[in-house]
Design a protein that fits this description.
With 385 residues, this protein is an alpha/beta fold. It has helices at residues 3-15, 37-52, 58-77, 90-100, 121-124, 145-151, 174-184, 278-294, 296-314, 341-350, 372-384, and strands at 25-26, 84-86, 108-112, 132-136, 156-162, 187-191, 210-214, 226-230, 320-321, 334-337, 353-354, 356-358, 361-364. The protein is built from eleven helices and 13 strands. The two termini are 39 Å apart.
Length: 385
């Protein structure tokens, strides 16, 4: 799909999925992504099926939908569906790694010193096992590969890093970092929540061992949805810290439940515990369907073009750009500050332009359905503020 097709031919149809756009200019997908109309409709249909009991084989229908979710997510990050596990949030996914890896006293975990807390506290919890947590010094608010190379030593077991930094949108060069980790025998864990769904990613090229991602931001899903990716090569290094009855393959035959001899799934499903939050995953499936129709590469190009409009103004304005302008490190997030950034945020909020106030900066994060007019509204207010 060419970029101009989404801009001209299909944009109007996609914008109808977000009926609030007549009243609100939503540029805050790095915080919470709105749920498209089709996802709301399908979620209602799920609850209607439960209420009216018109579906004969609800188990089959529901598990088929979960398989579809895994398929959509695998396609999005260039993985296999068998490498995808479903979890309620990023933190849960990261805990699959922190508690599933085998640790010994003196092992070291490397983190960025500008990491979102969700990718810090699960690792800090390992201190009770004698694991050392080492923070890699950033440079001007950006992760620095040179400092990574200076920090790695023979005791380093894991590097855990955000794909995109939450407050300034710095996109890490995961392919270079992945090669370093492979050469140093360091397990690479990635928090993908600020990139997946907006910024193209090939987990194989990046040599990522494990990735965790919530669904409530760029994936336009509801709270309580998320997934993790565990590469087939890295699977042998992680064991389930917890285990449940849905970690084995019943083949949807729930008529003989007094069986305690079933083997765990060979896929990432063995890390999925107990009954699923079916309704939220039903929502997620329809949101992923929409994103799959558009395609991540198209989404990334469009979002960058939208942000280019803002950049063109900011470069010669009283505001200070806090994001990297290097094409390799740009993402769907652009941050800037001004003389009184907190006041500016209040002005934008009153005018129903939704952005975020993070680390004393305004964080702007549009999605593919946003229009150039949306960005012009923001720019117009910035000129007056």
């Amino acid at each position: 799909m060419a970029l101009r097709e989404i801009k001209n031919k299909k944009l109007r149809r996609y914008r109808k999925e977000f009926p609030f756009i007549q009243e609100i200019t939503f540029l805050n997908h790095a915080s919470f992504g709105p749920i498209p109309s089709r996802a709301l409709k399908s979620t209602y249909e799920y609850y209607e099926a439960l209420t009216l009991q018109k579906v004969v084989d609800m188990d089959k229908l529901t598990f088929e939908r979960l398989d579809l979710v895994r398929t959509y997510l695998a396609k999005m990050i260039k993985a296999k569906p068998s490498e995808i596990g479903l979890v309620p949030n990023t933190s849960y996914g990261l805990n699959v790694a922190t508690n599933g890896l085998k640790w010994k006293r003196g092992d070291k975990v490397l983190l960025s010193d500008v990491e979102f807390p969700a990718n810090v506290y699960p690792w800090l919890n390992l201190k009770r096992k004698g694991v050392e947590i080492k923070f890699i010094r950033s440079r001007n608010g950006f992760f620095d590969i040179d400092n990574l190379l200076k920090t790695i030593d023979s005791r380093c077991r894991v590097l855990s890093l955000g794909y995109v930094q939450f407050f300034n949108g710095f996109k890490n060069d995961l392919e270079t970092i992945g090669k370093i980790c492979q050469e140093k025998d360091v397990f690479l864990v990635v928090d993908g929540i600020q990139g997946v769904g907006c910024v193209d990613l090939d987990v194989k090229k990046a040599k990522i061992d494990f990735l965790a991602c919530g669904g409530q931001k760029w994936l336009l899903s509801s709270l309580g949805t998320g997934f993790f990716y565990l590469s087939e090569q890295a699977k042998r290094k992680i064991e389930p810290a917890f285990f449940g009855w849905m970690g084995v393959d019943w083949k949807l035959n729930f008529t003989d439940l007094l069986r305690y001899d079933l083997s765990p799934f060979q896929s990432s499903r063995k890390f999925e515990i107990g009954t699923y939050p079916f309704s939220t995953l039903w929502t997620m499936c329809s949101s992923l369907e929409l994103l799959s129709e558009v395609g991540t590469k198209v989404i990334e190009k469009r979002v960058l073009r939208l942000l280019d409009l803002l950049l063109n103004y900011l470069k010669d304005s009283p505001y200070q750009i806090k994001s990297s302008l290097d094409p390799m490190h740009r993402s769907g997030i652009l941050s800037f500050s001004g003389k009184d950034t907190a006041r500016l945020f209040q002005i934008l909020s009153r005018k129903k332009i939704q952005v975020s106030f993070r680390e004393n900066s305004i964080r702007v994060s549009p999605h593919f359905y946003n229009s150039f007019e949306d960005m012009e509204k923001l720019i117009c207010l910035l000129k007056k503020a």
